[in-house]
Design goal:
Elements: E1 3-6, H1 9-15, E2 20-21, E3 30-35, H2 43-51, E4 58-63, H3 68-85, E5 88-93, H4 99-109, E6 115-119, H5 125-138, E7 143-149, E8 153-154, H6 158-168, H7 173-183, E9 187-188, E10 192-195, E11 209-214, H8 219-233, E12 241-246, H9 250-253, H10 255-263, E13 270-274, H11 278-292, E14 297-302, H12 306-318, E15 323-328, E16 331-332, E17 338-339, E18 344-351, H13 352-360, E19 365-368
Helix pairs in contact: 2-3, 4-5, 5-12, 11-12
Length: 369
């Protein structure tokens, strides 16, 4: 008797792995990450180098064009660990126009089929998406694991925020916006706002656009992305949907969710997703897609968490019609970003091409005889 089996989104979610404790002993022949200034930047790489010492492994390390002085300490740790382990390092200078092509070129030039370890710890959003897209395009048969080192503490701290918030309450809307811009939480200025080339989306039915905003404390970057989409796609702010991150340690950092919500004037169309559980971001984005797939074209503008970006990447693979909007600051504020080294985690994505097939075919119907 023939049978019909329909896949579901819940089946897809259930098939995805959860974070586990990072183990550098699980073999990967190629490490890809970025050199940043945070204490956590080199933590996973140093452990991996010890595990692969003398095994002829390679690493692709991406360098940012800003914060070079602040990055120097971590750069020394990266290169020192690589030298001690005999790891061949290929450095890539970040450029928005060329980063995707450079990663593609390096992966194509490789003579072996790699198992890869991609470190999210210092990957800014404008690097993470083209990097993952390049890996998927060039190395679909590669087994990919993701690792991530949390910081011990993040800025702004609660006391600093509450002092700042008390000052903000006394100001009108114009002066509040000016003060937010001047405060430079985490980054300073906006160098560029752009559609991410691997995820430009399409709107074949000429539907009105709905923008999904995933904010953090980078007030100026978020607003510049909203302005970019508003001007390009005629999207009024009241038609934006907001996904605001909820830290996993609610007792210690739960206030950050409310702070970001207040920072952007308490948007009514608010949704929540964990800043650590990437599947929550995937779920919320997919729910918004299901609600609007026949009435709106979607775009996502994000400066969210690392895990949130991973969930967003998976969503974009599922729904290539959705556009991705990113922003690049003039520089990050190294002294007010994060401190210390926290929990180290890893996630097994399996063969990246198989994962993409599963995402694209999330609702497929199978006939079995």
């Amino acid at each position: 008797m023939p049978t019909i089996q329909t896949a579901s989104f819940n089946d897809l979610l259930a098939s995805l792995d959860d974070w586990a404790v990072f183990s550098s002993q699980e073999y990967a022949t190629l490490f890809i990450g970025a050199i940043g200034f945070e204490h956590r930047s080199s933590a996973c790489f140093e452990k991996w180098c010890v595990a692969v010492q003398g095994k002829g492994c390679s690493a692709i390390l991406i360098r940012y064009p800003f914060n070079r002085t602040e990055d120097k300490e971590q750069e020394t740790k990266f290169l020192g660990a690589a030298k001690a382990a005999g790891v061949a390092v290929f450095q890539v200078e970040y450029n928005q126009r060329s980063i995707f092509g450079e990663i593609v070129g390096l992966l194509k030039a490789s003579k072996v089929s790699h198992s890869m370890l991609l470190d999210l710890s210092s990957l800014a959003s404008f690097v993470l998406y083209p990097l993952f897209a390049a890996v998927l395009e060039v190395a679909p048969r590669s087994a990919v694991r993701v690792c991530y080192t949390e910081a011990a503490a993040y800025f702004p701290g609660r006391e600093e925020w509450e002092t700042f918030q008390a000052k903000v309450q006394e100001l009108d809307l114009y002066d509040r916006a000016r003060l937010f811009d001047e405060q430079h939480f985490q980054s300073s200025g906006v160098n560029l706002v752009f559609e991410c080339a691997p995820f430009i989306g399409h709107n074949r039915n000429n539907l009105p656009t709905t923008l999904i905003v995933v904010p953090n404390f980078a007030f100026e970057r978020v607003n510049r992305m909203i302005d970019f989409v508003s001007e390009r796609y005629s999207v009024p702010r009241e038609r934006c949907e907001w996904i605001i991150g909820v830290p996993p340690d609610r007792e210690k950092n739960g206030w950050r969710h409310d702070a970001v919500w207040r920072m952007f004037d308490k948007p009514k169309r608010k949704h929540e997703a964990s800043t650590l559980n990437y599947k929550e971001m995937l779920l919320v984005l997919h729910q918004l897609w299901e609600e609007r797939r026949n009435t709106a074209s979607l775009a996502v503008a994000t400066v969210g968490s690392k895990a949130g970006h991973l969930g967003t990447f998976l969503f974009l693979v599922m729904h290539p019609e959705v556009a991705l909007i990113l922003s690049q600051p003039k520089e990050f504020i190294a002294s007010r970003f994060s401190e210390g080294i926290g929990t180290q985690r890893q996630l097994d994505l399996g063969v990246i091409g198989d994962l993409a097939d599963k995402l694209v075919g999330w609702n497929k119907v199978e006939f079995n005889w």
